[in-house]
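Batch manifest, entry 17 of 40.
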Amino acid sequence: MSQDKVIQPTISVYIITYNQSAFIAQAIESVLMQKHNFEWEILIGDDCSSDETPQIIQRYADKYPELIKIFLHKENLGYVKNTAGLLMAANGKYVASLDGDDYWIDPLKLQKQVDFLEANHDFSICFHNVKVIQGTNEANFTLLNSDIQKEITTIEDICRINYIHPASCTYRNYLIKKLPVWYYNECPINEWPIYILLAEHGKIKYINEVMAIYRRHEGAYNSRHNMVYKVKDVITVVHLANKHLNYKFDKIFTQALIRCYSTILDEYIGRSFFFRLYYTIILFRLLRKYNNYNIPSITLLKKLFNK
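Output type: structure tokens
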């Protein structure tokens, strides 16, 4: 008696969502419109939403039971653990990501990225440009990646700063089941550390096409948290990644920390003198580490004294 052969999907598309009932249907529809010649699966993780998001994604799962798998969490896990759970469930050779308030606009996006990675085994990540809009207004937009974005980058580049938006990224799935413990337990940012880990094993390809929309709106992560909160998350990731890579790129990570602490000082203008002094001392120590005085001392003193 013959048994049906289980076919591994070429790609797993995962969508993370939380209280995005106004946008989640558009995100899912933008995935469903993809035209391709390979097997795939769609994984959706809802992080204990209190709005209608779970009901909306349940309707899609009922309509496409062979394609869509949903994970309705009973408690709020946060971005990282929600992402990690979907990655552990991903069976595809490749993985593509999308937040529930963003969406794709090119029906051949996945095909283009999969074709590139299939033909170029020395690359681990493929990404593209995205439009940045406010709310639902597509008429007024900016582009996330500038004209000087390099077509090919490496781990040194992605350690310096994250220039890849989740809605633009497709990558190989060979490391996802081996994510380090610190990613689950200590990491406050879900995507950038994954790009760094993947870049240990291959180059990064940029396709200079706009194939997705990144939506800024009230309720989004970047709107809910102030600049200092987000910069402190970046500082945490820098320390974790630097240690993971055995400080091989310590100079690059130190430069990233210098930018972070300089930003904090700019944001803390008007706070108490001793509060600013604490961050000024940290910044001076980082500058001295590699004799990297790209921020003049007089500039730091002006930051310290609110000048």
